[in-house]
Amino acid sequence: MSLHHEVWGRGQRLVLAHGFTQNRRCWGPFAHDLAADHQVVLADLPGHGATPPEHDRADLTTAGELLVEVGGEGIYVGYSMGGRVALHAALSRPGAVRGLVLIGATAGIDQPDARRARTEADDALAEALDRVGLPAFLDRWLANPLFAGLSEPAACRRERLANRQDGLASSLRHCGTGTQEPLWNRLGEVRIPVLVLVGSDDTKFTELGNRLVAGLPDATLQSLPATHAVHLERPTASASAVRAFLES
């Protein structure tokens, strides 16, 4: 079975890949805005939403291939974890991924010690999720300073509660940042237009965004006043940035 997904609207195809603990219902006004004049494919990534448990153990490469199976040819828009999945999709299926929008994303951790520490941290998070349960875990997750700018509706806590606890724990163990082989040395292979979208208050991912742009052959950086989830904090401005990128 494929990833669970929905298709909205008509026009140029945009394939949206959400972040960790989210699902296809968490894009909010940003997706509705884009669906007014585009065809928008909203997929539940492995371990999330209504995607079958058989995909829970998919790694980032497999997740990217599964995403292309339901997305087909189009522009891929990935936020955070979804950005890492979309970047893997662009490398493994360049004929399908015609352009990329990476929101608060990274090409991985290239220091082995730091990557190992992140893997251990993600494993510990998965154990905490198993121990405290999904509602308490989400309260702790959304209290992260990265999400300080989110309003209650934009945080989409109710939608996140629709995820399976075991699916999210598996996602941490198989698609966490620590599990990712760093892709910085492969960015030159991504010979498609790329928009890197960041929140100006998210200093870590602004630095990573600048590094992505420096390594990609055809990329631009757009910064908006927001924290990590810029498309949820500034949906209209973010959708306008995507449109300007597509028109250029």
Secondary-structure topology with pairs:
Blueprint: E1 5-8, E2 12-17, H1 28-35, E3 38-43, H2 60-71, E4 74-79, H3 81-92, E5 97-103, H4 112-132, H5 134-142, H6 152-155, H7 157-160, H8 165-175, E6 194-199, H9 203-215, E7 219-224, H10 230-233, H11 235-247
Parallel strand pairs: 2-3, 2-4, 4-5, 5-6, 6-7
Antiparallel strand pairs: 1-3
Helix pairs in contact: 1-11, 2-3, 4-5, 4-8
Mind explaining what this structure looks like?
45% of the residues lie in helices and 17% in strands. Strand 4, helix 3 and strand 5 form a beta-alpha-beta unit. The chain contains eleven helices and seven strands. Helix 1 runs parallel beside helix 11, helix 2 crosses helix 3 and helix 4 crosses helix 5. It has a seven-stranded mixed β-sheet with strand order 1-3-2-4-5-6-7, with helices on both faces. The relative contact order is 0.17. It has 248 residues and is α/β, with parallel strands linked by helices. The protein has one domain: 3-Layer(aba) Sandwich (Rossmann fold), CATH 3.40.50.
